Amino acid sequence: MIPNLHLADKVVVVTGASRGIGRSIAQVFAAAGATIHGIARSVENLETLQRSIIENGGNCFTHACDVSDLENLQSVMGEILSESKVVDILINNAGIYATAAVRNMELSQW
Fold first, then answer.
1. Is residue 6 situated within a structural domain?
2. For residue 4, is it within any domain?
3. CA–CA separation, 98 and 71 (whole Å)
4. Do the beta carbons of residue 74 and residue 50 sit within 8 Å?
5. What is the span of the domain harbouring residue 42?
6. What is the pLDDT of residues 63-89, one digit of tens each?
7. Where residue 88 sits, what CATH number does that domain have?
8. Total of domains in the chain
9. Among 18, 47, 52, 74, which is most exposed with the fewest C-beta within 10 angstroms?
10. Does residue 65 form part of some domain?
11. What is the pLDDT of residue 110?
């Protein structure tokens, strides 16, 4: 989809992967050869993404997770690192509602 984008043997984690920009990024990177680990809250939308990528010859694993839940996120990242050993690219796309400047936010706000 993007000329000269070659991501074979790369592991890509995309948060907010179930729809919108995150879904599009996951599909483009998968088409370029990356193994995708999609993270989002919607299991149904993640399953649709996974089917789409696999039907087009790509590799995709999905992980239902609310990234605002630190324990859940740590558990999912542990699973990903256990399976893949490395993350080459992180697309941190999951939406948040910022109530302060990022540099002033506490972890609990993030």
1. no
2. no
3. 20
4. no
5. 11-104
6. 999 998 889 999 999 999 999 999 999
7. 3.40.50.720
8. 1
9. 74
10. yes
11. 61
